Amino acid sequence: MADTEKPLLIKRYASRRLYNTETSDYVTLDDIAEFIRLGREVQIIDLKSGDDLTRQYLLQIIAEHESRGDNVLPINVLTDLVRSYTNQATSVVPDFLAASFEMLREGQSAMVENMTKGNPLASMPGMDAMRAQQEAFLKAMTGGFGGMTSAPAREDDAKDEDQEDLDDIRKQLSELQDKLSKMNK
What we know:
By secondary structure, the chain is α+β, with helices and mostly antiparallel strands. Helices cover 55% and strands 9% of the residues. The longest helix has 29 residues, at 155-183.
C-alpha cells in the first residue's frame, strides 16, 4: 500500500510524458488533478535535469480548468495576481493566499462537522457512508471551498444560521426516517 503521507512522485520524461512512480504507468494532467482532489500531494520532477516542475504543472491544470469555463478565479483576482508579480508586494501575496485557502479548508471542515454533530441518527448503521457522501457533495457544490460564502456580520447571526441549518437537516432526516419506516411496513 502506498504511503499517502509523502507526495506522489511523478516523473516527466524527455517526451513530456508523465510517469506515476507508484503505479508504474503514465498519467495525464486530469489524473494528477484527480489525485490532488482526493487529497494527495504530488511532486513532478524532470527526469533528466531533476528540476521540480510541480508549480508549472499545477498552474497548467488551473489554466485548463479556467479555459474550459470552470471559472473559479474572478478577473479582478487574476489581475491582482499579475500585478503582484510586478511590484514590491510579491513577498506578501503568497503568504496571504496560503492563509486564505487554509481558512477556507478549516471553514469547510467545521461546516461538515456541524452537519453531523448532534444528529440522532449518527449511530445508525450506514451513517458513515452517508456522511462521506455529504462531504463529497458539499465539496463538489462548493468547489472544495466550504467557507466561500460571505460571513455573517455578527457571531450571533452565525450561530442562529447554524442552528437553523441544523434544524432543517434534522427535519429532513426525520422525514426520510418516516418514509423509510413506511416503506418497510
